[in-house]
Amino acid sequence: MDYSKYFSADVPSFLRSPVREIFRKVDLSAICSFAGGYPAAVTFPLADIPGLAEKVLGRYGTKALQYGATQGVPELREVIAKRYGVPVSQVQITTSSQQGIDVCSRVFLDPGDVVLAENPVYLGALQSFRAYRARVQEISAVSARHSEHASCHSERSEESPVKFIYVIPDFNNPSGKTMTLQERQEIVRIARELDCLIVEDSPYRELRYSGEPVTTIRELAPERTLQLGSFSKIFAPGFRLGWIIGPEELLEQIYICKQCLDLCPPVFDQYLAAEFMGSGMLDANLQKSIAEYRRRRDLMVSLLEKYMPAGVSWTDPEGGLFLWLTLPPALDTVALYDKALSAGVAYVAGSFFYTDGSHRNTMRLNFSFVDEAKMEPGIKLLAALVREAAAAADATADATADAAAAAAEGGR
Amino acid sequence: MDYSKYFSADVPSFLRSPVREIFRKVDLSAICSFAGGYPAAVTFPLADIPGLAEKVLGRYGTKALQYGATQGVPELREVIAKRYGVPVSQVQITTSSQQGIDVCSRVFLDPGDVVLAENPVYLGALQSFRAYRARVQEISAVSARHSEHASCHSERSEESPVKFIYVIPDFNNPSGKTMTLQERQEIVRIARELDCLIVEDSPYRELRYSGEPVTTIRELAPERTLQLGSFSKIFAPGFRLGWIIGPEELLEQIYICKQCLDLCPPVFDQYLAAEFMGSGMLDANLQKSIAEYRRRRDLMVSLLEKYMPAGVSWTDPEGGLFLWLTLPPALDTVALYDKALSAGVAYVAGSFFYTDGSHRNTMRLNFSFVDEAKMEPGIKLLAALVREAAAAADATADATADAAAAAAEGGR
Fold first, then answer.
1. Which positions in chain A touch B49 (Cβ < 8 Å)?
2. pLDDT exceeds cutoff 80 at A181
3. Segment B193-214 mean pLDDT
4. How far from B393 is each of A401, B215, B332, B390, CA to CA, in Å?
5. Number of other residues whose CB lies within 10 A of the CB of residue B405
6. Most buried of A186, A361, A363, B90, CB within 10 angstroms?
7. Torsion over CA: B358, B363, B368, B371 (sign)
8. Which chain B residues are within 8 Å of A7, Cβ to Cβ?
9. Which residue of B has its CA nearest to A241?
10. Residue A358: in which H helix or E strand, if any?
11. Is B369 on the interface with A (CB under 8 A)?
12. How many CB atoms lie within 10 A of CB B114?
């Protein structure tokens, strides 16, 4: 039976996540994977869960198992509001911060609309924007520190309004970069100039290992910013909980939309999260997670320094879960991938995160999930592959140069 | 700040749920509410949850707190596949069966497309179809038993393809009706004739209190049916878990779409559900729930018989959570609603479930959620309001008749 004719016109724009496809096909536990974006299992408060569950069931009884409010249970909205210094009315709970991205796409985007984003951009966001047939264009404010002048990309046509700017200002996925205050102010300036909204995706903000926190974009422009938060990296991703902080007028439409999406977020999990955050357990656990991740980041950076050949560079992130690696321009991480997988090491090719599929000499490396014991052999293996590919590229370049020289001689 | 210009062209089609709006404004615990669609809290396996949680955490450890597969955890897909006699590859877990409806809308519907549905239709489905700007048209197969001939509604234009037929064949929400085998065969015949899909929404099927199960539409037409299941009425709605059973080619696109929606369903909750269903605890609990609900249904029917005036009729459902009440044609349940709320009783006006807002003399009554002790005073109160409204309508009719007679006399 041919099912193609039943599908919506959006379906051809659906983009498979190359990261999730890797998980689907390869048993990552058997190899050294720097591919995923998973938090370290040791950071999960496993031992606390039975006690939390008991407390929640004792306090709320069957209410914890019943349907709940579409906005989220009041107890969770209250602890989030308190933690981030906003009124409860400006907090909407989401069933994961991916749902936060999707509901923003659903409420704001029409086919042909433009989203301005950093390049490279988080894949889950790119998937969501594309699935609504929006066009994702690069915002160059972030690269301003290199070019010394910040300006909005000028390819937009008048018929395609920019609905919002999408950014991960803290410890970007995939690049690992953190925006300076000046860059954030520049994002706000552009948003005000274009009169568009800002979606500030903030899943890693609490995971800072060095340096000082920078003011959030929401604080700079609360009137036009929807800030997405997540419990996945500060509690556990298995609970699928996130939140949106934003102006009430925008949350009102998101609330109505969310009725269609899933009626309400998981109720039992919300009470667990409220208890975990409200009781101070979250902060205690966060301190341990930060120490753990700082050690892993430092280990990966030192291993890259030890093993990677000249011509390879990487970001040294102040937080989050990712490093961004740039190889010599002649190398191709997409082409290298199958070889790496066979050798027993996985990464995500950087070009997947570029709206135009460029930057094929880059890759994203995750340092949070892989066992520390596997990290050294993994990086060593990856470095050997890079070295080998670089040598092959040099040989090709030499052969090309020889051929060119021969051709030049023949022409003389 | 005026936010209206940022919204998608879909937003004006977003429909607030009148049911959820009632919950938002009124403390239902203070009154007698027949309005919601909540299952009875006494049916939740509250005492089993700590043991289930312990088992899950002991068996899966941090895996239960980590991200999971987009299709759902294999353990849950397997128990569902086994229970319903389908291959695991034909099972996709959803974050609530409302998400099942939404993802089907997202994957199949474009603005202007037609969904054929029973009238009255489940509000959450109507909200979702309308939010994608699809047109919902009545399928008359269901009313065939009255008209003695079944045919597809003929208002469709050639430019608006029917993408799917949406039905709740077992214990319909809101009508409480169950389709006969002939009606189900007729749905399949129409779907094959129009060459469209069928979304068989099946959240209540396991809650049968009398009569014999009828073959599902999925069994009649597996090649074109997506059957939606839910844990909300057989486990607990607070976990937000459902599933879709359908052809692999359709589930494949739903899987890609679901990556954007929330990456994966709640993992911890899925393991709890898998253990609950797989261990036989679900079936034991279901027997208790069925006995409980049967008693409540019988009580409500007997109370309606006892208190309702002549001219009021109702369905006597074989299962599910709802009764459908029809008042004399002159009465208006929308107009009556505020009075009822002030008097201390809530229901949902039937016209909210009609695509054209008609049938203002009907209402949906839920018999699962309200305390049994409140049921008699609640129905008594409602009957008094109906009686009063009927008397007022009769008086108006008499006055109109008198005026007509007077006018006739005057004209003589």
1. 53, 57, 65, 268
2. yes
3. 98
4. 98, 44, 10, 5
5. 10
6. A363
7. positive
8. 107-108, 253
9. B266
10. none
11. no
12. 24
For A94-108, A387-401, B191-205, B361-375, which range has the lowest pLDDT when averaged over its residues? A387-401
Is residue A61 within 8 A of residue B46, CB to CB? The reply is: yes
User: What are the CA-CA distances from residue B367 to residues A128, A278, A315, B176 (Å)?
Assistant: 40, 37, 61, 11
ipTM score of complex: 0.92
**Is the separation of the CB atoms in A38 and A368 below 8 Å?**
yes
State how far the Cα of B241 lies from the Cα of B44, in Å rounded to an integer: 14
Residues B286 and B44: their CA atoms lie apart, in Å, by 10
Backbone angles phi, psi at B138, to 5 degrees: -75, 135
| Host H or E run for residue A298 | helix A281-307
Strand partners, A156: none
Give pLDDT tens digits for B313-347.
999 999 999 999 999 999 999 999 999 999 999 99
Q: Which residues pair with A227 in a beta bridge?
A: A200, A245
Query: Are the beta carbons of B103 and B201 closer than 8 angstroms?
Result: no
Q: Which of A45, A27, A232 is closest to B262 using CA atoms?
A: A232
Rounded Cα distance, A66 and B38, in Å: 8
Interface of A with B in 111-150 (CB under 8 A): 113, 124, 127-128, 131
Q: Which amino acid is at A206?
A: E
Architecture of the structural domain at B59-279? 3-Layer(aba) Sandwich (3.40)
Determine the Cα–Cα distance for residues A240 and B75; give it in Å rounded to an integer: 18
Rounded-to-10 torsion of CA B360, B120, B28, B34: 90
- Residue B175 — φ and ψ, nearest 5°? -75, -20
* Cβ–Cβ contact B53 with A under 8 A: yes
Residue A382 host element (H or E): helix A372-411
| DSSP bridge pairs for A226 | A199
At A40-57, the pLDDT tens digits run: 999 999 999 999 999 999
Backbone angles phi, psi at B11, to 5 degrees: -55, -40
Q: What is the CATH number that goes with domain A4-43+283-407? A: 3.90.1150.10
Q: Best residue in B243, B259, B289 to probe A by mutation, most A CBs within 10 Å?
A: B259
Residue pairs spanning A and B at CB distance below 8 A:
236
Residue A345 sits at φ, ψ, to 5 deg, of: -135, 140
The domain B4-43+283-394: what is its CATH number?
3.90.1150.10
CATH number (3.30.420.10, 3.30.420.40, 3.40.640.10, 3.30.565.10) of A63-282 reads 3.40.640.10
Q: Where are chain A's structural domains? A: 4-43+283-407, 63-282
Separation CA B44–CA B281 (nearest Å): 12
Chain B contact for A67, CB < 8 A? Answer: yes
Sign of CA dihedral B12, B18, B24, B25: positive
Q: Is the peptide bond before B169 cis (omega within 30 degrees of 0)?
A: no
Cα-to-chain-centroid distance, residue A385: 26
Q: How deeply is A389 buried, as exposed, middle or buried, from its count of CB atoms within 10 A (0-12, 13-18, 19+)?
A: buried
Q: How confident is the model at residue A29 (pLDDT cuts 50, 70, 90)?
A: confident
Within 10 Å of residue A295's Cβ, how many Cβ atoms?
Answer: 13
